[in-house]
Design brief:
Elements lengths: L2 E4 L3 H13 L2 H24 L5 H38 L7 E6 L2 E6 L2 E6 L3 E6 L3 E6 L7 E4 L5 H14 L5
Helix pairs in contact: 1-3, 2-3
Length: 173
């Protein structure tokens, strides 16, 4: 069965953070709050101004406030993703070593100088994939995932991984 050896880079964790937060409920909640906040800000600015100036203020506020809020949210999210991605590698010295991943019929095997771990295909709770990485969420570590950057994976490894995950019925996240 195929195996790969990889070294993690900071950019791998930044990309993984983007992938894992892209579809999270927290993101959807942020966007909903942004829309409500925009409407509240426009209403507040419009109705607190003097009646003769309300028409002008409504036009200005309805154009500027939502775009400023969206820009601020986008920027804060990018900064947050970059900070979390950078912290992941510096906070855990074990991640700076060499890892070997192997696709086997019983599961995904991870080997490093710190030991060996196996994620059985039946224990995979969810899988996320984009053009730069795979994230595999095992049931025994619900808040964590195994990161497999595609820059390190061979085509054979990815095909075998997809086949095993599909056979196990692992849901996409």
């Amino acid at each position: 069965m195929p195996s790969v050896t990889l070294f993690y880079k900071t950019q791998d964790f930044i990309e993984a953070q983007k992938l894992s937060t892209r579809q999270s409920w927290r993101d959807k909640k942020r966007w909903a709050l942004l829309a409500l906040g925009s409407m509240a800000a426009v209403a507040l600015l419009t109705f607190t101004t003097e009646p003769p100036q309300r028409g002008e203020m409504l036009k200005i506020a309805s154009l500027l406030m939502p775009s400023a809020l969206i820009g601020g949210l986008w920027l804060s999210q990018r900064v947050s993703i970059a900070l979390h991605g950078r912290r992941a590698l510096t906070a855990s010295p074990a991640l700076r070593s060499e890892f070997t991943y192997e696709v086997q019929p019983e599961g995904l095997i991870q080997r490093s100088q710190h030991g060996e771990a196996i994620v059985k295909w039946t224990e995979v709770q969810a899988v996320s994939e984009d053009r730069k990485s795979w994230l595999i969420y095992p049931a025994f570590l619900p808040a964590q995932s195994y990161l497999l950057p595609k820059r390190c994976l061979t085509a054979d490894f990815q095909e075998a991984l997809k086949a095993q995950l599909m056979a196990a019925g692992a849901p996409r996240k």
